[in-house]
Amino acid sequence: MNKVMKIENQFKVIRIAFSIAIALAIAFLIISFVSDDPLYTMYNFIIGPFTSINRIGNIIEVMTPLLFTAVGVCIMYSANMINMASEGAFFLGGVATAYVAVTYTMPSGIHPIISILAGGIVGAIVCGIPAIMHIKFNALPVVSSLMINYVCLYLGLFIVNYVIRDPQAGYMASYKFAKTAILPELFSKTNVHLGLIIGLAVVVFGYYFLMRSKWGYSIRMIGKNTSFAKYSGMNVTAILLSCQLIGGFIAGIGGAVEQLGMYNRFQYQKLPGHGFDGVMIAILARYNPKFVPLASFFLAYIRVGADVMARTSDVPVEIVSIIQAVIIIFVASERFLEGWKYRRIVKATKDTHAEAEKQVVGEA
């Protein structure tokens, strides 16, 4: 059994590694056709993000909001409820945070905490609505959650443009956040802020909650077999609702942290896409928060690499979309490399039986 589990764990890593290698090979093939100097272009794509402190900072800046949305998705999807409202939770959580940061005056140590909590509460409400609709009315959560993202978008834009809009800004944006609400920078010459530490703390919480706690075990059990969970005496309804609320709360504080760390006023005019990116990262992490930082860093790295490549060569930045799509296709394909895994499991099982027979014969 230990050998089989070891093979299963190795298989997850190898499949992701193969997916990345295939995606990069396809990217290089495309670059070879469209670029006059493909080797230089590929160098800028792969090595470019690490050639300066500013670019490394850009990777961390892109990575930070993804930690929140990915951990939230890991918790929600582990219950086998496809809730796509983390995008709306991130956006409207940012709006709620902006409202608190603009409207109220508080001490510097309290203001960001209250602002972030406001964003988290709004995010929990957003992701809780599709869950309640599913529990009460059997509405498909993937449909209702996708639709609620647009409700969040236009509700948020209404609040920004008609409640906290700064007419002196020259464009559609809120008043500037109070200085007491802004999250401090961690490193000079970059925009890396305290939100990175908060995000890593969320990852630790997500891992221990989902993988090490009794409640997290219940969530994963419901995701694997709802009927078994019901017959075991679990309160399926309460657990389903709670994990969606927790996931939405985390996505909401992600939107809050992004606003207070990266901007001095709310200026989104469309959904930022971080919630949908969180779904992609959760898939790469196999819904285990422990691997979210690595998957988030990789996605941020290829995006910054694509940006460097686009600015230093004749290849457009959209190449990163091809890489993302290929990786997700192979990682999400359950039968990709399955034959190799099964052959290794069969061989390991036969070897274990052979060793057991030898031990029995030796004892006899």
Low-confidence spans: none
DSSP strand tally: 0
Helix content: over 70%
End-to-end gap: 25 Å
Looking at the structure, what is the overall shape? globular
What is the mean predicted local confidence, pLDDT?
Answer: 90
Q: Please, how many helices?
A: 14
Using the 3D structure, state the CATH architecture of the largest domain. Orthogonal Bundle
Q: How many domains, as an integer? A: 2
Helix and strand succession? HHHHHHHHHHHHHH
- As a whole number of angstroms, the C-alpha radius of gyration is 23 Å
Biggest sheet, open or closed, and with what strands and sense? none
Strand content: under 5%
CATH topology of the largest domain: ABC transporter involved in vitamin B12 uptake, BtuC
What does this protein structure show overall?
The protein is an all-alpha fold and 364 residues long. The chain has two domains: 1-36 and 317-364, no CATH class; 63-313, ABC transporter involved in vitamin B12 uptake, BtuC. Helices cover 74% and strands 0% of the residues. The chain is built from 14 helices and no strands. It has helices at residues 2-34, 38-46, 53-77, 86-103, 111-137, 141-162, 195-212, 214-224, 226-231, 236-262, 274-284, 292-312, 319-332, 338-363. The two termini are 25 Å apart. The mean pLDDT is 90.
